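JOB MANIFEST
job_type = single_chain_structure
chain_count = 1
residues = 207
[input]
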Amino acid sequence: MELVSPLQFSVVQPTLYRGSYPREINLPFLKSLQLKKIISFVPEEITKEVDAVLVNFCEEHYIELIHIQSGKVKQKKEKKKKEDKSKVKRKQKQVPIEYSTVIECVKILINKNNYPCYMHGVSDNDIVISLVVACLRKFSFWSNIAIMNEFLVYNSSINIHERTFIESFNSEIIIENMDKKDIVNWIHSQSTSSSSTSMLPKIKFES
C-alpha cells in the first residue's frame, strides 16, 4: 500500500515533523513514523465526537494526542432579542497565537523522550505552525533572515505583525522536574546558559 503523507509535510528536526491536519488516508504514513506524540494546534480539543478516526488511531498505537488551543473557538449561535440590535465590533488579533502557545509547545518539545512527534494545525497552510516553528528556530540560534525565508516557504507572505511576533520572542521558559540530560540536541547551549546576555529566548531548569 502506498503511503500518503499529510499536505505540507516536512521535517523540522530529526523525528520532529510538521504538516496539515491528518486525514484518514495519512494515518498509515504517520504509523510508519512510530510517533509518541501528536500536537494539535486547533481551536477545540480533538475528541471522538470531533474526529473518532484520529482519536482511535492514536489510542490503538499508543500515541498521545496533545491539544494546544489556538485560533477562534466556534460559539453556538443564540437567538438575539429584537430590541438588541447593537453590534459590538471586536478588534481581531494581529497574529492568531500568543507567546504562551509557543511556551507550552517548547515545554513538550524540549524533552527528547517525547519524540517522534508530529505537529499540525487546522489546514494545510496554517500560519500557526509556521509561527511556532519560527520561534523554535531561535533556540537553535538561526538568523532572522533564515527564519523568515523558511516562513515564506510555507506562506505566500509575512506581514509586519507576524515578523514582529517572531523577532520579539525572547521569553524565559521555566522547565520543572526534567533531567537536563533529556534535553534535545537542537537547543543551543546558550539558550540554557545562566550567563547568557543575548536577547534570545532562554530556558531555565528548576527541580
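[summary]
Residues 48-60 form the longest helix (13 residues).
Residues 10-71+94-169 form a domain with the Protein-Tyrosine Phosphatase; Chain A fold (CATH 3.90.190.10).
exit_status = 0
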